[in-house]
Structure formats: structure tokens, C-alpha cells
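Collaborator request log, item 7. Partner lab (contact: R.S.) asked for a structural prediction of Prefoldin subunit 5 to inform their binding assays.
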Amino acid sequence: MTSKEPQTVDLKTVEPQQLMGLRDQLEGEMQNLSASATALQSAAGQFGSSGRAIERLAHQESGQPMLMPLTSSLYVPATLDSASNVLIDIGASYYVERSPADGTDYCKRKVNMLKDQLDQIGQVMREKQRIMQQVTAVLQQKLAAQQRAQQS
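Returned to partner:
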């Protein structure tokens, strides 16, 4: 019968080559987690920026001139028709029309969700870092012992 619970292994019984492989694997996992955290931070920043833009837009009056972004560096002159509704990209090229208050709330909820995910990734990274330190310490002990044995 197999168990899905993690197995505990005494690192002192593991060969140095296996410890090196484990250390390399942990380093790779840490790099992947770090990249994921960076992407989540970027997304949280974008949702935060969108929420603030919706709040500013809600206070604008109809007929007011504005610059409409077509890309991150290309804007065209436009006139605000109405600030009573905004279109929100909910993913996979789907958009929903909401009031500015609902749009701001949506962005805040997304930011909070992403921050929760970042916290979870941070916990996993701290645990992996702790394990990697243990693996590195045992590996250094084993390599030092091998070196002493060869010199004797």
C-alpha cells in the first residue's frame, strides 16, 4: 500500500552523488518558484494599476478629452462617452461590463488572491531553502570526510 505522505530520509545515509543531485533539483525548483513569484508580483501590480485607473475614470465627466492607450507606448486622442460602465478582461479574451465600483472590487480581489498565492510560494521557498541548507551541510561533511580518508 503506497502513501501520499512524504517520506523522511536520513541525509547521512545518502551517497554524496545523490546529495548533489538533490541539491541541483532543489536549486531548479527554487528558480522555478522564484520565476513564478516574479510573474505573480507583476500580475498583482497590473491589477492594482487597473483598479486605480478605474477609480480615476469613475470621477471623470462625459465629453472630457483623454488619451486612449492602444499599446503600452501608443496613445490616441479620444473623448470619454460614459464612465458609468467599464469592460473588464476576465481572461481567455472574455470581457464583462461592470460598474466602476464592481471593476475596482474585482481588481482588489485579484490582487488579494495573487498576494495569497505569493505568500504560499514564499512558504514553499523557505522550506526548500531550509532543506537545501541541510543537504549542503551534510554534503560538505561527507566530502570533507572523503578527503580526509584519501589523505590518510
